[in-house]
Amino acid sequence: xxxxxxxxxxxxxxxxxxxxxxxxxxxxxxxxxxxxxxxxxxxxxxxxxxxxxxxxxxxxxxxxxxxxxxxxxxxxxxxxxxxxxxxxxxxxxxxxxxxxxxxxxxxxxxxxxxxxxxxxxxxxxxxxxxxxxxxxxxxxxxx
Length: 143
Known about the structure:
The structure is a single chain. The chain is mainly α and 143 residues long. Helices cover 69% and strands 0% of the residues. The protein is built from five helices and no strands. The two termini are 29 Å apart.
C-alpha cells in the first residue's frame, strides 16, 4: 500500500487513536482483568478493525457529509451498508465493558438514533444518485 497523506489521515491516525483509547481504557480501568474486560477489549478491537477496514474500502469516497461520489459495494460493504457506524458502536460497547461503567451505555443508546438518522440521509443521497443500482444493493445488505 502506497503511503500518502490521505492514507495517513484515513487509516493510520484513526488506527493509532483507537489503539491508544483501547490501551488507555484497558490499563486505567479499575478492578481485575477478568472475562468482562477481555470481552470489552475483543469487541473494541473488532470495532476498531471494522472502522479501519471500512474507511480503507471507501477510499476517496469517504466524506463527513452525505455525498454520492461512488457506489461502493465491495469488501465489508458487500454485506453491510454502514459498517463505520456499526463498527463504531461495537468499539464503544467494548470501551464500556472495559471500563465496567454500565451507565455509559446511555451514550450508545443516544447514538443509535443519530446513526440511524445519518444512515437514512446517506441512503436518500445514494438512491437519488444511483437509483435502481442502489435499491438492488440495499436488498442484499444489512443496515
